[in-house]
Amino acid sequence: MMRPLAVYSKFDLNLVRAKGCFLYDNEGREILDFYSGHGVISLGHSHDVFVSALQEQLSRLLYYSNAVPFVEQDELCEALGRVSGCETYDLFMANSGAEAIENALKVASFVNGRHKVVCMLNSFHGRTSLAAQCTEASKVCAPINAGLDVSWVALNDFEAATQAIDESTTAVLIEGIQGVGGVREGSTAFWQHLAERCKATGTLLIADEIQSGFGRSGKFFAFQHHGIEPDLICTAKGMGNGYPVGATWVSQKYALPIGSLGTTFGGNPLACKAALTVTQVIESLNLCARAQELGAYLRKSLQDIPGVSDVRGRGLMIGFDVPSDSAPVRQNLLRDHLIITGNARQKTTIRLLPPLTIDKGHCDYLLEHLPLALGVH
């Protein structure tokens, strides 16, 4: 009998449906989703506008290859440029964040003809070949994932960055906010130092906004908190609200020859409609401001809970630590309080990535029940 390959650690849940900020299992339990499946569900589950838009597109034109132009791609580019404030980029669509990273590194190497990549310690960029080699987690690399020249730099280590970024560097790759790494980010001064060093050496700066983008940080992109413009931007996760879509945003300073990048499924009409609808709802509901406001409320309130330390993050991308392994706390939250949360590479960290459509009542429910799960009430 065929089975799903057993490569995931899984919650003991049997989900049958989801709506808004809640999941529902086969026992009829309503579970508050403070993780959004790794930050994917940006608008909330089965958002009415999103579902209607995809149903309409599905009934009209689901797929054809990039051998023909699609008005859906043009509509998406117009909306994305306007809403994000990044109108001077061109969009190459794919199906996942890892693909977006692979293509960004490929573009950088096409542009300057170089091989070396500078990456941040504690990073996570994906599990495919180049992305895995740029991820500081040995178990995602098989022996075949080898050969890329990578220099590692700690966040906010200016001296190491200066030494690592030179005329042999094709790209610097940095997450807007580290996700798996525990919700850590470079300072504004560090981002600006990277941008200046890249400009001085002809190196391309790649912002990995796969988890931190699409409004999650309180701005459309996390790098926008730092007053810089990267050469390339990578997006996925919240871009599709559950539909698999990713993209590499390429500064219009750079041009690529026909055939240098390609994809079978990327940019199909249904994927474009998913990303377009997400973008439109983020704009119409002002979800960036909502993330900023509710995130500030959550972070301030979390600091007052005994046993919670090092509260950090921006917007609705929040991390904090508990006194010991977070797994029992997260299990208690799910089993006894019906709240699902995330973890990170550091065992004591809990990660919060709720839908951007949560309200203060959802936040208060978490804040009321977290002390009970910690046993400090």
Structure description:
The structure is a single chain. With about 375 residues, the chain is of the alpha/beta class. The protein folds into two domains: about 15-45 and about 285-375, Aspartate Aminotransferase, domain 1, CATH 3.90.1150.10; about 50-285, Type I PLP-dependent aspartate aminotransferase-like (Major domain) (Aspartate Aminotransferase, domain 2, 3-Layer(aba) Sandwich). It contains eleven helices and 14 strands. It has helices spanning about 35-40, 50-60, 70-85, 95-110, 130-135, 160-165, 190-200, 270-285, 285-300, 325-335, 360-375, and strands at about 15-20, 20-25, 30-35, 90-95, 115-120, 150-155, 170-175, 205-210, 230-235, 245-250, 310-315, 315-320, 340, 350. The strands form three sheets. Strands 4-10-9-8-7-5-6 form a seven-stranded mixed sheet, with helices on both faces. The N and C termini lie far apart (about 50 Å).
Please name the defining characteristics of this protein.
alpha/beta; 2 domains; single chain; Aspartate Aminotransferase, domain 1; 35% helix; seven-stranded mixed beta sheet; 377 residues; Aspartate Aminotransferase, domain 2
